[in-house]
Specification:
The protein is of the alpha+beta class and about 140 residues long. It has one domain: Winged helix-like DNA-binding domain superfamily/Winged helix DNA-binding domain (Arc Repressor Mutant, subunit A). It is built from five helices and six strands. The strands form two sheets. Strands 1-3-2 form a three-stranded antiparallel beta sheet. Strands 5-4-6 form a three-stranded mixed beta sheet, with no helix packed on it. β4 and β5 form a beta hairpin. α1 crosses α2 and α2 packs across α3. The protein is globular and about 45 Å long. The two termini are about 25 Å apart. One zinc ion binds next to loops. The site of one zinc ion has 6 residues, from loops.
């Protein structure tokens, strides 16, 4: 996971047309450092401890950052959302269907598969990015 400087995060918020606030930078800053997509609960917990930001504020900032296209929201069939920074790069993760374990796998390309999908598609002309979840059992649950 790439890490971003405070200036880069500030630039991202500005480019997205949002006002730069300490809360928005705190949310982006946290998400830029984690290895795996995090749940809202983890985010609330971490930011409350670290920056003393309350839950409603975290939710509000997540919503505005997501709407502005800076965050990617992922659904792992857990009944709650997970968030990660929208880097524009593809993201691939293994997801345990029995517990909350997620593992992001870097350095894998499915570009050939994407090309084949596009070739078979009747409705699409191009692809931009993708996020892929493969379900299975983690070592604890298997
Ligand atoms: Zn989850
Ligand atoms: Zn598991």
């Amino acid at each position: 996971m790439a890490s971003y400087t405070q200036e880069e995060l500030t630039g991202m918020v500005q480019e997205a047309g949002l006002r730069v606030t300490g809360h928005r930078l705190a949310v982006l800053g946290y998400l830029s450092k984690v290895k795996n997509p995090v749940t809202v609960y983890e985010l609330v917990d971490a930011l409350r401890k670290k920056d003393n930001i309350d839950q409603a504020t975290v939710y509000r900032n997540l919503a505005s950052l997501h709407e502005a296209g800076l965050l990617r929201r992922l659904d792992f069939n857990h009944g709650h959302a997970h968030y990660e920074l929208e880097t524009g790069r593809a993201s691939h993760q293994l997801v345990c269907s029995n517990c909350e374990t997620i593992e992001k796998i870097e350095g894998i390309s499915i570009d050939d598969t994407v090309k084949k999908m596009l070739k078979k598609s009747k409705k699409f002309k191009q692809t931009t990015t993708h996020s892929m979840e493969i379900y299975g059992l983690c070592k604890n649950c298997a």
